[in-house]
Amino acid sequence: MTAVNILSGGAAQGLVRGLADAFKAQTGLSIDGEFGAVGIMADKLRAGTPADLVILTHALLLKLAEEKLVVPSSIADVGRVETALAVRNRDPKVTAKTEADLREVLRSADAIYVPDIKASTAGQHVAKVLDRLGIAYEVASRLKIFPNGATAMRELANSTAKRPIGCTQATEIIATDGIALSGSLPPGCELVTMYTAGVTARAAHPNEAAALVALLTGADHKELRQRVGFAG
């Protein structure tokens, strides 16, 4: 069966999954592709990986449009996603209302599950927060770093540590069985990222890709976006 191929940040995986049936009913096509750290997905597009559609951060979409890899007129914002804390379902939730709270939460964890700290949006932010809190060196040996947030959260769910915690984007936390969204990062440490979709310049199925952008951003699916962790 013919498929529309996407390259997407992991933050959008739950939303795309939730729209797959509606997209197939509308176009007759399935959805295929990759989800991962946004920097890696952008580099895959630059390297010529076939893709009809990309869902990445707003800033990256604009850059790819400047590089003539994404059609500027097709670009549309999907929604904002916050970076948040996660715990296993069986563990008590933690809250961090201040930077001091977050410092203590992270110091108390014996394993900290995060996505790629160089190529992913949330991972880069975690690294900055640890520096800001002055505990990067202290907790370095406890960092469990994975290629993307979805993998990090699956590993958190299966962790045998006594007091593990995770930090990635809320959509990836919500989409993972066995873990719970524990709380937002405090003022000064928060991150809310706008995710944006666009049709690629070399799309094999540009019309169907545009239809998927419309589904991702349309008012009819606002409730689904909110349920999987996107804000307006």
Q: Could you estimate the helical fraction of the residues in percent? A: 40-55%
What is the 3D form? Answer: elongated
How many individual helices? 10
* Percentage of β-strand residues: 25-35%
In this structure, how is the largest beta sheet organized? 9 strands, mixed
Measured distance between first and last alpha carbons: 34 Å
Number of strands: 9
Succession of helices and strands: EHEHEHEHEHHEHEHEEHH
**Average predicted confidence as pLDDT:** 95
Structural class by helix and strand composition: alpha/beta
Uncertain stretches of 5 or more adjacent residues: none
The radius of gyration is 18 Å
Overview of this protein structure:
This protein has 232 residues and is of the alpha/beta class. The protein has helices at 13-27, 38-46, 58-66, 99-108, 121-133, 136-139, 149-157, 170-174, 206-217, 222-228; strands spanning 3-9, 30-36, 53-57, 76-88, 111-115, 143-146, 164-169, 179-184, 192-199.
Ordered list of secondary-structure elements with their pairings:
Blueprint: E1 3-9, H1 13-27, E2 30-36, H2 38-46, E3 53-57, H3 58-66, E4 76-88, H4 99-108, E5 111-115, H5 121-133, H6 136-139, E6 143-146, H7 149-157, E7 164-169, H8 170-174, E8 179-184, E9 192-199, H9 206-217, H10 222-228
Parallel strand pairs: 1-2, 1-3, 5-6, 5-7
Antiparallel strand pairs: 3-9, 4-7, 4-8, 4-9
Helix pairs in contact: 1-9
Summarize the structure.
This protein is α/β, with parallel strands linked by helices. The chain has helices at 13-27, 38-46, 58-66, 99-108, 121-133, 136-139, 149-157, 170-174, 206-217, 222-228; strands spanning 3-9, 30-36, 53-57, 76-88, 111-115, 143-146, 164-169, 179-184, 192-199.
